[in-house]
Write a structure and sequence with these properties.
The complex is a heterodimer of chains A (about 290) and B (about 280).
Chain A (H helix, E strand, L loop, with lengths): L5 H32 L2 E2 L7 E2 L3 H8 L1 H32 L6 H13 L2 H12 L5 H8 L16 H10 L3 H12 L3 H9 L4 H12 L1 H17 L2 H6 L11 H10 L3 H25 L6
Antiparallel strand pairs in A: 1-2
Helix pairs in contact in A: 1-14, 2-14, 3-7, 3-8, 3-11, 4-8, 11-14, 13-14
Chain B lengths: L9 H32 L4 H6 L11 H10 L1 H32 L5 H10 L9 H10 L6 H11 L1 H12 L4 H9 L4 H12 L1 H17 L2 H6 L8 H6 L1 H5 L3 H21 L1 H13 L2
Helix pairs in contact in B: 3-15, 4-7, 4-8, 4-11, 5-8, 8-11, 9-10, 11-16
The chains are: A mainly alpha (about 290), B mainly alpha (about 280).
C-alpha cells in the first residue's frame, strides 16, 4: 500500500465531497425523511404531527391502495417472468449469430432509447377504438367481434397498459447476449465432441453459466415493475375505475391532495417490497462465487 | 462451433431454424410496426386516418410537421431539454469521475464501504422519493428552474455513473500514474492530464446513458417545474393531446419529432451504449 501524501489527501477529500454530499442529500436524507414522516400527518406547509401507525392502517384499508399493490405484483410478474424469459430465448437465438443478428440486436433495442411517454402516446394510438391499428388488424383478420376500446374497457385496460412493454426485450437481451459471448468456446467444443445437440448445449452449458445475469435482469425488471409510473399515468391515469392504479401513481395523487404523510407511508411500503424482491431474487440466483 | 452430428439431426435442426426465424421476425415486426405506422400516419390528413388507418397517404403532408412545431411550441421544449440534458450530463460526469478517481486509484479505509453504499443507490426506486425531492428543491429556492432538474438528474445518476467509470479507471495500469508523479504531476494534474483522458471510453459510455436518461425523464420534470418556459419535451408531449385536440396527425408528427434525437443519439453511440449496459450489469 502506497503512502498517501498530505496534498493528495486534501485532493481526495475535495474530489469525493461533491458525490458524497449529493448522495447524502438526494438518497440518504430522502429515505430517512420518508421513514420518519410516514408516521406523521402533514400537508407540506404546517409542521408534521406524529400519528403513529395511522397512515399505514389508512392505506392498507384503502381498497385503491390494495388494488395498486395487486397491480404492481402483476407488473413485477410480467417483467420478471415473461419479459426476461423472452429475452433469454431471443439472446440464445442471436448467440448462434444467425444472418443479420447485429441489425436485429440494434433494432430490438430501439424502444429502450425512446421515452416511455412517447411510447405510451404511440400505443394509445395503436389501442384507439376508432382508428387504432389493433382494432384495424382484428377487422382484417375477421375477428371484428373482438374490437373494443382497449384502454377504456374494465376488463382489458390493465393488460393493455402492462403488456405492450413486455415484448420490448432489447435491454435484457443485450445484457444476456454479452454474457453468453463471454463463455469460453472450448466448453461448446468439448460438448459437441461428446455428441450434445445445440439445444442440449443451451440447457446444460449456456443457461447455467448465465444464471447470475438472468438473476440481475429479473431484479432490474421487477424493480422497474414496482416503480412503474409513466405508462399508467399517460395512458389511463389509473382509470377506468382505478383498475390500472399502481403504487407510485397512488403516491403521486396523494401529493396532489396534500396528504404527504400518507404519500410517504406508501413510499415506505414501496421501498420495503422493493428490498424484499431484490433479496429474494439474489438468494435464488446466488452463484457459488458470490 | 459446428455441430459434428449435424447430419443426424437434420430435420430437427431445420424445424428449429424455422421456429427461430418465426420468433425473431415476430419481435422485429412488433418493434418496428407501431413506429412505421406512426410515421405513415403523421404524413396523412385526419380524414384519411379516420377512413382507413392502414392505407398509405395519397400525398405526403409535410405541413403536419410545420403545424406540430407551431401548435406545441416544440422549439422551446427542445431547447429546454437540450440545456437540461447537457447540463446534467456534464455535472454528473464530472462529479462521478472525480469520485471514481479517488475510489479507484487510492487505497484507504472505508473505500469499499463508500463505494458499496453508492452502488446500492442504483436499485433505490427513485420515484418513491417524490415528497423529499419537492421539499429539498423548494428549500433551495430553485423550484421551477432548469437548474433544479440539472441538479436532481446529476444526483440521481451518481451511483450508476460512478459504477461504470470506476470500473473503467481500475483497469488503467498504475505505472502510467506513477510516471506522472515522478514527472512532478500533482493530484489534480494526474486526474486531468492522465486518468481522465485515458478513461474516455468509460466516460463516453456513462455520459451517453446519462444523456438518454435526462432526455427521457418525465416524473421529476413534471413535479419540479410548472411554467411553460422551462418545461422539457417529455412533459410537453403529455400535453399534446390537449393542445392538438382532434388534429391527430399533427400530434403524431410532434411525437415523431420528439423521438428522432434519441434514435440519432443511439445510432451514433451504439457501441458505447452496448458496452455500458454490459459492464453495468454483467459485473454487477
Amino acid at each position: 500500500m502506497r503512502k498517501i501524501s498530505i496534498s493528495d489527501k486534501i485532493g481526495m477529500i475535495l474530489f469525493l465531497a461533491p458525490a458524497v454530499i449529493l448522495f447524502t442529500v438526494f438518497f440518504v436524507y430522502p429515505v430517512g425523511f420518508i421513514l420518519v414522516t410516514s408516521f406523521t400527518e402533514w400537508d407540506g406547509m404546517s409542521s408534521p404531527v406524529f400519528v403513529g401507525l395511522r397512515n399505514y392502517t389508512t392505506i392498507f384499508k384503502d381498497p385503491i391502495f390494495r388494488l395498486a399493490i395487486r397491480n404492481n405484483i402483476g407488473w413485477v410478474i410480467a417483467g420478471g417472468f415473461i419479459q426476461v424469459p423472452l429475452a433469454v430465448i431471443v439472446a440464445l437465438m442471436l448467440s448462434k449469430k444467425p444472418f443479420g443478428w447485429k441489425a436485429l440486436r440494434t433494432i430490438y433495442y430501439f424502444p429502450n432509447v425512446i421515452s416511455t411517454v412517447s411510447l405510451s402516446m404511440m400505443w394509445m394510438a395503436v389501442y384507439n377504438s376508432e382508428y387504432g391499428i389493433l382494432n384495424g388488424l382484428l377487422k382484417i383478420l375477421g375477428l371484428g367481434h373482438l374490437q373494443r376500446n382497449w384502454l377504456g374497457d374494465l376488463h382489458t385496460a390493465f393488460y393493455s397498459v402492462v403488456l405492450y412493454g413486455v415484448f420490448y426485450i432489447g435491454y435484457f437481451m443485450i445484457i444476456l447476449l454479452a454474457d453468453i459471448s463471454s463463455i469460453p468456446k472450448s466448453y461448446y467444443e468439448a460438448a459437441s465432441i461428446d455428441g450434445a445437440t445445440k439445444i442440449q448445449q443451451d440447457f446444460y452449458i449456456t443457461l447455467p453459466m448465465i444464471k447470475g445475469t438472468i438473476g440481475t435482469c429479473m431484479t432490474v425488471a421487477m424493480v422497474y415493475g414496482l416503480r412503474q409510473f409513466e405508462q399508467t399515468y399517460v395512458m389511463t391515469n389509473g382509470g377506468p375505475a382505478n383498475k390500472t392504479m399502481v403504487m407510485v401513481l397512488y403516491l403521486f395523487k396523494k401529493i396532489g391532495d396534500f396528504k404527504y404523510g400518507i404519500a410517504d407511508a406508501s413510499a415506505v411500503v414501496l421501498l420495503l417490497i422493493g428490498s424484499l424482491v431484490i433479496l429474494t431474487v439474489k438468494r435464488i440466483f446466488r452463484t457459488e462465487n458470490n | 462451433m459446428k455441430n459434428v452430428l449435424m447430419h443426424k439431426v437434420d430435420f430437427k435442426t431445420k424445424a428449429g431454424k424455422v421456429l427461430m426465424w418465426i420468433v425473431l421476425i415476430f419481435f422485429l415486426f412488433y418493434t418496428l410496426m407501431p413506429m412505421v405506422w406512426l410515421v405513415i400516419s403523421s404524413l396523412k390528413t385526419n380524414t384519411e386516418l379516420m377512413g382507413s388507418p392502414f392505407s398509405l397517404p395519397s400525398k405526403l403532408r409535410f405541413e403536419n410537421y410545420a403545424n406540430a412545431f407551431k401548435v406545441s411550441g416544440l422549439g422551446i421544449l427542445f431547447l429546454n431539454s437540450i440545456i437540461v440534458s447537457l447540463g446534467a450530463t456534464f455535472l454528473n460526469i464530472m462529479i462521478a469521475s472525480m469520485a471514481s478517481f479517488v475510489l479507484s486509484r487510492f487505497e484507504f479505509r472505508f473505500r469499499e464501504a463508500i463505494f458499496s453504499l453508492l452502488v446500492i443507490g442504483i436499485l433505490v426506486p427513485i420515484n418513491s422519493l417524490m415528497v423529499p425531492y419537492v421539499k429539498i428543491i423548494n428549500k433551495l429556492g430553485i423550484y421551477d428552474t432548469r437548474f433544479a432538474l440539472i441538479l436532481v438528474y446529476s444526483a440521481i445518476s451518481i451511483p450508476i455513473s460512478t459504477f461504470i467509470i470506476r470500473g473503467f479507471m481500475k483497469t488503467i495500469p498504475v505505472e502510467l500514474e506513477e510516471a506522472g508523479t515522478i514527472d512532478g504531476c500533482n493530484f489534480y494534474q494526474r486526474f486531468f492530464k492522465i486518468i481522465f483522458p485515458l478513461s474516455r471510453t468509460g466516460i463516453v459510455t456513462a455520459a451517453t446513458l446519462q444523456f438518454l436518461y435526462c432526455w427521457n425523464e418525465f416524473i421529476y420534470s413534471m413535479l419540479l417545474t410548472s411554467s411553460q418556459s422551462v418545461r422539457t419535451i417529455q412533459v410537453g408531449i403529455r400535453y399534446f393531446s390537449n393542445q392538438f385536440t382532434t388534429d391527430y396527425t399533427s400530434m403524431y408528427a410532434a411525437i415523431v419529432i420528439s423521438i428522432i434525437p434519441s434514435l440519432i443519439g443511439y445510432i451514433t453511440f451504439q457501441e458505447q451504449i452496448i458496452s455500458g449496459l454490459t459492464s453495468g450489469a454483467v459485473k454487477g
